[in-house]
Write a structure and sequence with these properties.
By secondary structure, the protein is α+β, with helices and mostly antiparallel strands. It contains eight helices and ten strands. The strands form three sheets. It has a six-stranded antiparallel sheet with strand order 2-1-6-7-8-5. A two-stranded antiparallel ribbon has the order 3-4.
């Protein structure tokens, strides 16, 4: 598992930075928006928005090393004190109160823990505009994912490994450009398609091997699912000479069952990459959409995440009026 960015808990007693195995694989965040629903006669309703209610932030990890016991006791003291603290990681920042801390004392140098922080205030900067992910960016991300995920499948397909490596070499700048959404992401998103021409040749070279690989993954899924089903049909009493064979079938089925999630992931990646590679290898191809009425402002906001880009759509379709009427087919540049 890939760990998230280090967490820092700033308390009145000092700063506690979660390091190494203390850093969790994930920290779920979010919550709900509280509403008051007034049901009216006839089925109509009025919904009053009451405000956001953030879910508690909960994660777990391991306190390891010579200071594990002292660190566990420090976190427990923060829980006892009930003071407001500041929790930060990556671009996230919360005012919190540590409301639960549980540690399992196994050895002085090894203490697994679970911690829960009740959110007082979410201080994370709001994101109001998310640039769309282009086919080039999607290819860059998927090429990196497929390289990391391929060994887990147990499949060896040199052509696709070679082609993905070549593709990743030119696509990597785009993957590195995909920073967390923030003040600078819009500029990065606007410039990243400048790498598309560098990717085109590599994209065209991988289409064939990727299609063959997708077929191989599909066959592996069928075989793995078949081997998994055989586990349920191997009951009964077997003659002595067949015991070893049945044990081997059970082991093969168990291994296949363990590999199925990886096969499904690779199948999904291969299909998605094939779609995006077509758009990258043929950059002149434009998306066609059909809308009923509305405005080009709304279309630009939906497609680009930026309503001010409506003029690009207008120019591509020979329009000057942003207001649309009737059924209109639009070409999206």
């Amino acid at each position: 598992m890939i760990q998230i960015a280090p967490l820092t808990l700033t308390t009145p007693s000092g700063v506690f930075e979660f390091v190494g195995a203390e850093v969790p694989d994930q920290v779920p965040f979010g919550g709900e928006h509280l509403v008051a629903v007034h049901q009216l006669i006839g089925g109509a309703r009025i919904v009053d928005a009451m405000g956001a209610s953030d879910a508690p932030l909960t994660w777990k990890g391991w306190l390891l090393g010579a200071s594990a016991e002292d660190r566990a006791r420090f976190l427990d003291s923060i829980r006892r004190a009930g003071d407001q603290c500041t929790l930060t990681w990556s671009d996230y920042s919360y005012a919190v109160v540590v409301t639960n801390f549980s540690a399992d004392y196994q050895k002085p140098h090894r203490i697994p823990y679970t911690i829960t922080c009740t959110v007082v205030q979410d201080r994370t900067q709001l994101v109001i505009n998310v640039p769309r992910v282009t086919p080039s960016q999607a290819v860059a991300m998927d090429s990196q994912t497929i390289t990391l995920a391929l060994p887990a499948t147990g499949l060896v397909y040199t052509p696709v490994q070679t082609a993905v490596s070549a593709l990743q070499a030119v696509a990597q700048p785009m993957a590195q450009g995909l920073q967390p959404v923030g003040a600078g992401i819009s500029a990065a998103a606007r410039t990243v398609d400048g790498f598309a021409q560098q990717v085109t040749t590599a994209a065209q070279a991988i289409v064939g091997p990727l299609a063959t690989f997708a077929t191989q993954v599909g066959n592996s899924i069928v075989q793995a699912e078949g081997a998994t089903m055989e586990i349920a049909t191997l009951g009964g009493v077997a003659p002595a000479g067949q015991i070893a064979q049945r044990v081997g079938q059970i082991i093969a089925g168990a291994n296949a069952q363990a590999n199925l999630p990886s096969f499904y992931q690779m199948s999904h990646l291969a299909n998605r990459m094939s779609t995006n590679l077509g758009a990258v290898a043929n950059p002149q191809t434009r998306q066609q959409i059909i809308v009923g009425g509305g405005t080009l402002y709304g279309v630009a906001a939906q497609v680009y995440g930026d309503a001010t880009q409506w003029q690009q759509i207008a120019q591509a379709n020979g329009l000057s009026d942003p207001n649309l009427s009737g059924i209109t087919q639009l070409s999206i540049p």
